[in-house]
Design brief:
Blueprint: E1 3-4, H1 17-30, E2 40-42, E3 47-49, H2 51-69, E4 76-80, H3 85-96, E5 100-103, H4 110-120, E6 124-127, H5 132-142, E7 151-153, E8 165-166, H6 167-170, H7 184-189, E9 191-194, E10 196-197, E11 205-210, H8 211-227, E12 239-242, H9 249-261, E13 265-268, H10 274-284, E14 288-291, H11 293-301, E15 315-318, H12 325-334, E16 339-345, E17 352-355, E18 368-369, E19 374-378, E20 391-396, E21 403-404, H13 408-414, E22 421-429, E23 435-440, E24 445-447, E25 450-452, H14 454-461, E26 467-477, E27 482-491, H15 500-515, E28 528-530, H16 544-551
């Protein structure tokens, strides 16, 4: 059966994303108690921007891109930077020219960044000074010809560079051809964002999100926000904290753009640090926190929380990674005045699929489908299942991606002929329309919201001189409220008859070798365990479930890393 949202369908306007965010933002901010209240506050530069100032700066950025650098409709810009007001200006300014924005993790190493550059083929890059060494090495690896003139520095605090232009020097006021949506077909098919989502069979994939996809998801999110009274009181000033990275789709669409479109001020932090997070909540009277489990576990456990006044916080949403029942109970007991709700989504759905409404008393539910959303649950043979039956979760709606960039086989295996997205997640929908996610069919590991593809780590391990075969799985660590990657390896014959102490030394050496070659979130925090044989099917597929079931009791390797973002 097809499950439909309990909410009435919303009208999706025939408008480009930048216009929707800025014009809807102006309308909503004008209704506020103080219409001149900032739309964005950058904690790094202490820059405050109203929605009108933000619009003006995006105009000037778009003008410069066009008049100084010759940016054209459909060109791609890589945004490779931490959160800042300049991040937002760059993103919206690029969209005003009909450009496509792809986002990259500032923690990427050159090899990882080179893959994204090769795949997305950006002609322009906006970044920060500290990222330049990695960026230049990645460009060399990718063999892309990107002139220095097409690299713009958007550091939150003004910097000087002998060869590169900074954003404040870059602005222009000359006219430019402002992009606008001319038809519903263009709304549906015009590329806007290109975030990268890791897979289990190789390197990360570019997720093509259209203007319709992301306009729809902001509307879907904000209808839910209105339903739950997040910021319905016009006599109050409401603020989001932008601490989740905006290169991640949850941070970008839900923390940033849904706030701006709702007339809610967004306060940006370049990264999460507990002290600065608490100071920001206290100083700016943050009312809503879109967060992830590792931050929540800090809120529960860190003694310094009691030193700050965070009474302004009324709502917290949690998404991007699984959260356990015990942590939800601890949060509810610790912060009795804060409503804490779960959200479910994936990059391919722009990202939100379901949210827990105010009447939902189940802490294990991920809520109800957002408006305009449909779902199916299927068994392993593709048969549709009924209420309460567990199977793979499929979703359809205006927020579902167009496909994967340059990857038709991955697209066809994820989007079926009826345009249902096969998530690879296992769950069910109960008689009240509540969605429950109980497992993941996909092998993707989620470390604190960041995606870690096992196949990438396995390929790397097989390049080690000591390793004969390898498998990587995710192990959930309660203390950190996250999965961590754990490797199982068999050793080459030269290591036959090792003592236990020698095996420990070899496994430590392998772990250190891998960790030196990958981004922080991909490190083997679960350790490296030497075994006799990697369990595989007759077809040669790694039987990860066997590894999980066999080794889940061996917990001593999984509790050595203190939780941090």
């Amino acid at each position: 059966m097809i499950f439909k949202s309990l909410l009435p369908d919303a009208q999706i306007p025939n408008v480009d994303f930048a216009t929707y965010i800025l014009e809807e933002g102006k309308r909503r901010f004008a209704q506020n108690k103080n219409p001149n209240n900032y739309a964005l506050f950058d904690c790094q530069s202490n820059q405050a921007l109203t929605i009108h100032q933000l619009d003006d700066l995006t105009q000037k950025f778009a003008s410069a891109l066009y008049n100084k650098l010759g940016f054209k409709n459909n060109d791609t810009l890589l945004l490779y930077s931490p959160n800042s007001s300049n991040f937002v200006i760059t993103c919206l300014g690029t969209l005003k020219l009909g450009g496509v924005v792809t986002f990259s993790n500032p923690a990427y190493n050159p090899r990882e960044l080179a893959h994204q550059i090769s795949d997305s083929k950006p002609s322009f890059i906006a970044t920060c000074v500290e990222n330049l060494p990695t960026l230049f090495e990645a460009i060399n690896i990718s063999k892309r010809n990107i002139p220095l003139s097409n690299i713009i520095l958007i550091d939150a605090v003004e910097v000087k560079h002998p060869k590169l232009t900074t954003i404040s020097q870059f602005y222009d006021s000359r006219p430019f051809p402002r992009f606008s949506i001319s038809s519903f077909n263009e709304l549906e098919n015009k590329y806007a964002f290109l975030p990268y989502s890791s897979g289990t069979t190789g390197l990360s994939k570019g997720v093509i999100l259209s203007h319709k996809n992301i306009v729809s998801n902001v509307i879907q999110t904000n209808i839910y926000a209105t339903l739950n009274n997040w910021h319905n009181d016009p006599t109050q000033i409401h603020r989001y904290i932008g601490v989740l990275p905006w290169y991640h789709i949850y941070g970008l669409v839900i923390c940033l753009f849904s706030g701006l479109a709702n007339g809610v001020g967004v306060v940006s932090l370049p990264k999460f640090e507990m002290k600065s997070f608490l100071e920001t909540v206290q100083t700016h009277r943050i009312s809503i926190g879109h967060l992830v489990p590792p931050i929540l576990i800090n809120l529960v456990n860190e003694p310094i929380v009691k030193n700050y006044d965070i009474s302004s916080l009324k709502f917290i949403t949690t998404a991007a990674a699984p959260i356990g029942k015990e942590l939800m109970i601890n949060l509810a007991n610790r912060f009795k005045e804060i409503k804490i709700v779960k959200i479910y989504g994936v990059t391919e759905s722009s990202p939100i699929i379901s949210c827990a409404p105010y009447w939902n008393n189940s802490i294990e539910s991920s809520g109800i489908l957002t408006c305009n959303q449909e779902a199916k649950v299927i068994d392993e043979d593709g048969n549709e299942l009924d209420v309460g039956q567990i199977g793979e979760l499929l979703f359809r709606g205006p927020n579902i991606m167009l496909g994967y960039l340059n990857n038709p086989s991955a697209t066809s295996s994820t989007l079926d002929k009826d345009n249902f997205l096969h998530t690879g997640d296992i769950g069910y929908i109960d008689e009240f329309g509540n969605l429950f996610v109980v497992d993941r069919k996909k092998e993707l590991i989620k470390y604190k919201g960041f995606q870690v593809p096992p196949a990438e780590l396995e390929a790397l391990l097989l390049g080690n001189d000591d390793v004969a075969d390898a498998a990587v799985i995710g192990i959930y660590v309660d203390e950190q409220a996250t999965e961590v990657p754990k490797a199982f390896v068999t050793l080459k014959s030269k290591h036959a008859n090792l003592s236990e102490s020698e095996k420990t030394a070899v496994s430590d050496r392998i772990r250190e070798w891998v960790n030196s070659k990958v981004s922080n979130h991909k490190k083997l925090r679960g350790g490296v365990q030497i075994i006799d044989i990697i369990p595989k099917s007759a077809a040669g597929k790694i039987l990860r479930r066997v590894l999980r079931d066999t080794y889940k009791g061996d917990n001593k390797l999984f509790k050595t890393t203190k939780a941090k973002l």
